[in-house]
Amino acid sequence: MKKIGKIIVTLVVIVVSLGAIAKVLSNNKKKSEEKTQIVAQTNATVSVRIDTVSREVPNLDVIANGNFAPAQELKLASEKSGRVVNVLVDEGSFVQNGQTVATIRVDQLSVDLHNSEANYQTARTDLERYENAFKTGGVTQQQLDQARLQVENAKAKLEQSKINLGDASIRASISGIINKRHIEPGSVVSPGSALFDIVNVSTLKLNVTVNEAQIPYLSVGKQVQVKVSVFPEKTFSGKINFISPKADESLNFPVEITITNNAASQLRAGMYGTAVFDFPNQLPVIMIPRTAFVGSVNSKQVFVADNGVARLKSVTPGRVIGEKVEVLNGLTEGSLVITSGQINLVDGSQVSVIQ
């Protein structure tokens, strides 16, 4: 009997334990279902970031970088053959337009000029004699015409000899500084031989590029501030000299700015310069982040958050200025435009805003 009692007690304990386990499992299942429902409700919304639509003055001011180039640059070359007799300037020398910078040997040229002068005078004397003889019938009209032709030929040779002798004195054809000297006394030159490199840095050019958003506000003659990296405390005044009518391969427009050097000629060709374009008096316009557009600006679509619901809007974009885009139509001030998370949205999606 005792054995049967122990068995009954054991069975009762097992039944109670199983009941307790079943109750615990039931409670856990209920809690799990409640959590699942909460997660399901949470996952029904898409987390997004927003930006409030407002009017602002677009910042069109822009800086553009480039290198200075001389307004004038010349590689002076020889026009005649000969031996250099004198070199009258050195590298770094300033020369004026028309100044003699070197001479070549002129002995033979002087002889040629003397002979040409003598031949010209002889031809004139012969012409006078033929003209007098023609009046008395001593020579024919043909002989007189031939004498006149000889005078013209002799005169032409004389002029050429004078030019040749003049070319023996090498003269600068622009004002500027001798940047490179290619000859020494005794050098033998021929037509086309390099003699000097002359640069004029009294005025310099700065070539930069701007995008299409700035082009409407630029014009030839507009004043531009120019900064130079090696003179950070100085500001130079430039003037737009040229605006390209055609964009380059990067869809930017080349602009040429001329800058007058200061009295100390501190600006040098090759220095790094920065043009600062100022576009004042801009009116406030609706601007939104570029990231608000679905895909790209070309899609012309954005999502706005309306009481926790995403609404797809068609808009008319205007100028792209940096990371912002002007909106001409389709949005009003105060709207909440969605700037991230659009990839998971469709029109009517539930959204939750994250900071």
From TrEMBL:
Pfam families: Beta-barrel_RND_2, BSH_CzcB, YknX_C. Residues 77-199 form the CzcB-like barrel-sandwich hybrid domain. Residues 206-276 form the CusB-like beta-barrel domain. Residues 286-353 form the YknX-like C-terminal permuted SH3-like domain. InterPro entries: Beta-barrel_RND_2, BSH_CzcB-like, RND_pump_MFP, YknX-like_C. Keywords: Coiled coil. SUPFAM superfamilies: HlyD-like secretion proteins. Residues 113-171 form a coiled coil. Belongs to the membrane fusion protein (MFP) (TC 8.A.1) family. This is Efflux RND transporter periplasmic adaptor subunit.
